[in-house]
């Protein structure tokens, strides 16, 4: 518990000054030098640990103190509690330059393990990892029956193979592989004896322990595994557990290159040919080299685990362990088959049966993932079609289990990590995007980053439009899933939805068949190729819009939209770009009304609309009718200021003959009239509570665009000039209420003046406002005859000279 | 393999402005190999980096837990102690997993599995492709052991000065970051060993 007392303790530990620390260190030294190390020493070391670990900056401990800690750690008669504390303090201070710890003379394996934990935390500047490894292997090779138990050493070995696999020699690896075989396959099947200390009432002859049992209580039918239970365990049974726990990492280490070993040619022949004949049985096991023998025994172990997992465990903990063992067994089988494809035939039949059994078990749905992974890895080699398995995984699982955070995470990572392996099956993944979006909609915080990476592969020319609609409706999907959960019978004790939010109107309205159709569409499992208007659904689900989960999902959408557009612009052609641009215009005013959702989405949509137009400039002319409608329909400008600004800017930029030959003067005039009407409306209407002041950016963009259009169709110049001169004088608006209003008005007036000046020289205006495509060439700016700055300087000098002669 | 185990405080979702996210205990198993950086690495700098990496993980876990609590409509009341007699229902405790991209904050991509119990967050930092079912059950086991053996439910105790017990539990149930396949009976056996090794 983190109470105020704990907070103050932490503060004290962090704020302790150097002199106090020095005194405390000498106290620790005194306590540790005594013969009897009592609770005072323990208490002091606990405090020392807190002092060292509470701050991320270095703590200067006296050298004598550190040396004494090291000595205490290595001393054979020190109690375990103190050893643990010394090790933890030394480890907390790591990495440390002047550590003089060595594991060479330590006899107890438990102590050696503790010292190793300190040494391995140094980051290996002096080859500590190698020296620890050598010492550990020397002990392992000694094989004394009463000697130190290897139980504490196996995790150290596992860590070393992870940190520095090159420090182990081949013969050491082989030696350990042989011992692993013994521990895995030949552990005792009798239960261990209880370690009873003597005592007055203890019987001199302990009852003979019986055989180990399976998790369902039956007597064990075959060799000992991690799923075998008993009252007490023997040492080799402990080693069995350790050996299996490190098995996968060890197999990967002992054969890192996989099949590309000297006899790879033989193996590659095996891959293509009939596997059944060549790999029928495991014969003459003892004649195999250690690596191959380990694989064989590991294979038998995994098969036994698969068989043991069919039993009904009596305890919940064991039932959870069965699932973890299934996953591990399949992962180990995957490694074995990668290293030696001759195991494939036996494994495939086993896994197919396993998959069939697991499909109907909802409690074990997470174990389907490694099986699917196996078939993706080996499907090609074994000429087995992984399509059915993938289809089941992607079309059924997400709809039923989207609410489980761990499954959603694992399934998303599975899709993302295996993208290169999908091959022909990538189509199934693409078509299942609605199902995958359910995982994202329900669990958006941890999965957003994964989906940003996954999106480019889900989007292609066929699905792009549907995906964009789905992304914009993602918060609506969250609400729909919530509704679906409330309507379906409860599957767990605690409700999966937010019980503090009550929505009787939604539940009532959802019985309407029209809404049911729309809901079913939103909750579809695969891409349908069509789109439905989701507007009515937004109204139905409105009560859920303020639900925390929906809001979290809404916050993720802008990022996903950016990822979508980055992907789409890689391959979109003219037709698709046109469809997407239209979609942006349509959807900008029909979004699910989640608090603070609209503004960020509008920002993305407006900037992406401009980007689409930049890619295909003729878009403006092609969509002229729709754009006119859009501009004309803007009445409540406050919600769509960003979209309007970018649409108007696009019109100004690209509605010209230089971008598309089909642009006509009539079109320019029509746009001009529409925009003029909008500008009139926004500037003449008085700001009130219902209609807040129009952002000055929108006003200036409108003015600039009108000027641009006028420069192309010069009959319009007088109208624009008149309008602009009206804008220059302060409008009949009420007194500005803040300096920002004054600044805004000032900016508008300045822009109006600039544009007016520009229009006085129509050909210059055309040159400035409708530059030819050569503007992007550097030569255009360096050539003294065509450079724009030069032209502008000339013009302004001319204008200044004539200012006195012109009115206004 | 587990790269690190940490315990930190979990603040209620509404109380984000008060106090800081504090790492109460952390243990890094082994060390990340230093990148090929031509500049000489100070040991101090490496340690600073390690501590900051752990703090970054703790902050992310806290925010994930708060978001999950908000989304499921559970208020901070659930995070407080109901009664010290009730066993804490760990299977219903908020939990989840997320990925850390390479370089942010660890050199290699890692996966974090987390569990929120009362006002403490427990997290395991794993390699990218690990057996998450095993990691999850190991994390629950560690949380249960720590709650039971450190008697964290009684209001007056805290885990700041109990490093020896935490280390003892980790040394048996997560030695050097090795996830172990322990069935119930093995767990009981190890717990007995654990209790026997403590003097009181």
UniProtKB/TrEMBL annotation, chain A:
**This protein's encoding gene:** AP5Z1
Pfam families per record:
SPG48, TPR_AP5Z1, TPR_AP5Z1_C
Q: Where is the AP-5 complex subunit zeta-1 N-terminal TPR domain?
A: 1-280
- AP-5 complex subunit zeta-1 C-terminal TPR domain residues: 450-798
Q: Which GO terms describe its cellular component?
A: AP-5 adaptor complex
- Which SUPFAM superfamilies does this one have? ARM repeat
Please state what the protein is called: Adaptor related protein complex 5 subunit zeta 1
User: Which intervals hold domain AP-5 complex subunit zeta-1 ARM repeats?
Assistant: 321-438
UniProtKB/TrEMBL annotation, chain B:
GO BP annotations, alphabetical order: double-strand break repair via homologous recombination; endosomal transport
Looking up InterPro entries in the UniProt record yields: AP-5_subunit_s1 (IPR029392)
Q: Please, which domain of life does this record's source organism belong to?
A: Eukaryota
One cellular component GO annotation, for this chain's record?
AP-type membrane coat adaptor complex
Q: Name one Pfam family in it.
A: AP-5_subunit_s1
Q: What is this protein called?
A: Adaptor related protein complex 5 subunit sigma 1
Q: According to the entry, what is the taxonomic lineage of the organism?
A: Eukaryota, Metazoa, Chordata, Craniata, Vertebrata
Chain's gene name: AP5S1
């Amino acid at each position: 518990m983190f109470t105020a007392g704990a907070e103050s303790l932490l503060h004290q530990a962090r704020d302790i000054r150097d002199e106090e620390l020095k005194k405390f260190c000498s106290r620790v030294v005194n306590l540790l030098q005594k013969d009897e190390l009592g609770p005072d020493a323990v208490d002091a070391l606990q405090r020392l640990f807190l002092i060292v670990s509470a701050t991320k900056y270095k703590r200067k401990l006296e050298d004598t103190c550190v040396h004494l800690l090291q000595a205490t750690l290595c001393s054979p008669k020190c109690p375990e509690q103190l050893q643990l504390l010394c090790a933890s303090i030394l480890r907390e201070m790591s990495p440390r330059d002047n550590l003089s710890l060595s594991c060479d003379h330590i006899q107890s394996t438990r102590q050696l393990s503790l010292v190793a934990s300190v040494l391995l935390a140094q980051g290996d500047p002096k080859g500590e990892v190698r020296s620890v490894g050598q010492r550990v292997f020397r002990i392992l090779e000694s094989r004394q029956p009463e000697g130190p138990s290897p139980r504490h050493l196996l995790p150290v070995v596992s860590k070393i193979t992870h940190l520095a696999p090159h420090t182990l020699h081949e013969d050491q690896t082989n030696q350990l592989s042989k011992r692993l075989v013994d521990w895995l396959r030949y552990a005792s099947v009798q239960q261990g004896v209880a370690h009873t200390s003597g005592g007055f009432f203890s019987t001199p002859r302990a009852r003979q322990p019986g055989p180990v049992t399976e998790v369902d209580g039956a007597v064990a039918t075959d060799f000992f595994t991690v799923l075998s239970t008993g009252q007490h365990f023997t040492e080799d049974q402990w080693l069995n557990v350790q050996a299996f726990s490190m098995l996968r990492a060890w197999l990967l280490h002992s054969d890192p290159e996989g099949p590309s070993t000297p006899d790879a040619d033989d193996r590659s022949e095996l891959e293509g040919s009939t596997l059944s004949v060549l790999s029928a049985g495991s014969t003459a096991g003892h004649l195999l080299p250690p690596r191959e023998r380990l694989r064989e025994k590991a294979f038998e172990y995994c098969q036994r685990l698969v068989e043991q997992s069919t039993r009904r465990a009596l305890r919940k903990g064991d039932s959870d362990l069965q699932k973890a063992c299934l996953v591990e067994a399949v992962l180990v089988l995957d490694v074995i088959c990668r290293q030696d494809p001759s195991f494939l035939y036996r494994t495939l039949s086993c896994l197919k049966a396993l998959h069939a059994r697991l499909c109907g078990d909802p409690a074990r749905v997470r174990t389907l993932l490694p099986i699917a992974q196996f078939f993706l890895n080996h499907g090609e080699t074994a000429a087995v079609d992984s399509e059915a398995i993938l289809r089941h995984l992607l079309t059924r699982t997400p709809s039923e289990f989207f609410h489980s955070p761990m499954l959603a995470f694992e399934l998303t990572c599975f899709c993302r990590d295996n993208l290169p392996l999908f091959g022909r099956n990538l189509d199934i993944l693409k078509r299942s995007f609605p199902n995958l979006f359910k995982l994202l909609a329900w669990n958006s915080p941890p999965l957003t980053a994964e989906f940003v990476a996954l999106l480019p592969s889900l989007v292609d020319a066929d699905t792009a439009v549907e995906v964009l609609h789905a992304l914009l409706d993602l918060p609506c999907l969250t609400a729909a899933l919530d509704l679906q959960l409330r309507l379906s019978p409860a599957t767990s004790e605690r409700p999966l939805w937010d019980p503090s939010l009550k929505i009787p109107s939604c539940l009532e309205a959802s019985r309407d068949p029209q809404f049911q159709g729309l809901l079913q569409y939103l909750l579809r499992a695969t891409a349908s190729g069509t789109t439905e208007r989701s507007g009515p659904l937004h109204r139905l689900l409105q009560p859920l819009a303020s639900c925390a989960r929906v809001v979290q999902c809404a916050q993720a959408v802008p990022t996903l939209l950016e990822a979508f557009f980055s992907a789409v612009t890689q391959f979109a052609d003219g037709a698709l770009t046109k469809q997407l641009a239209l979609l942006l215009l349509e959807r900008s005013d029909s979004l699910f009304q989640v608090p603070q959702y609209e503004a960020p989405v509008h920002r993305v949509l407006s900037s992406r609309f401009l980007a689409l137009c930049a890619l295909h400039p003729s878009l403006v002319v092609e969509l002229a009718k729709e754009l006119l409608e859009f501009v004309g329909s803007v009445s409540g400008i406050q919600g769509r200021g960003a979209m309007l600004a970018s649409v108007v800017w696009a019109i100004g930029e690209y509605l010209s003959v230089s971008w598309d030959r089909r642009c006509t003067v009539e079109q320019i005039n029509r746009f001009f009239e529409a925009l003029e009407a909008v500008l009139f409306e926004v500037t003449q209407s008085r700001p009130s509570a219902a209609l807040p002041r129009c952002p000055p950016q929108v006003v200036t963009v409108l003015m600039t665009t009108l000027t641009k259009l006028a420069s192309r169709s010069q009959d319009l110049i007088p109208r624009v000039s008149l309008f602009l001169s009206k804008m220059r004088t302060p409008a009949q608006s009420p007194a500005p209420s803040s300096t920002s209003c004054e600044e805004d008005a000032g900016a508008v007036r300045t822009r109006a003046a600039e544009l007016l000046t520009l229009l006085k020289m129509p050909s210059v205006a055309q040159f400035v406002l409708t530059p030819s495509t050569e503007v992007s060439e550097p030569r255009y700016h360096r050539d003294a005859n065509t450079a724009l700055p030069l032209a502008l300087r000339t013009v302004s000098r001319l204008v200044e000279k004539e200012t006195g002669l012109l009115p206004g | 393999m587990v790269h690190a185990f940490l315990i930190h405080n979990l603040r209620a979702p509404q109380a984000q402005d008060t106090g800081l996210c504090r790492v109460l205990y952390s243990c890094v198993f082994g060390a990340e190999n230093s990148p090929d950086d031509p500049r000489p690495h100070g040991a101090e700098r490496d340690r600073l980096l390690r501590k900051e990496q752990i703090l970054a993980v703790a902050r992310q876990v806290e925010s994930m837990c708060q978001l999950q609590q908000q989304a499921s409509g559970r208020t901070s009341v659930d995070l407080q102690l109901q009664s010290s007699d009730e066993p804490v229902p760990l299977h219903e405790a908020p939990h989840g997993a997320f990925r850390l991209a390479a370089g942010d904050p660890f050199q290699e991509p890692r996966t974090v599995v987390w569990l929120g119990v009362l006002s403490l967050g427990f997290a395991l930092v794993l390699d990218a492709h690990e057996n998450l079912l095993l990691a999850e059950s190991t994390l629950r086991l560690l949380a249960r052991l720590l709650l039971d053996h450190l008697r964290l439910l009684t209001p007056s105790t805290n885990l700041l000065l109990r490093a020896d017990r935490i280390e003892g539990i980790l040394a048996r149930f997560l030695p050097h970051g090795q996830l172990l396949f322990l069935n119930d009976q093995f767990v009981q056996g190890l717990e007995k060993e654990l209790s026997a090794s403590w003097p009181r």
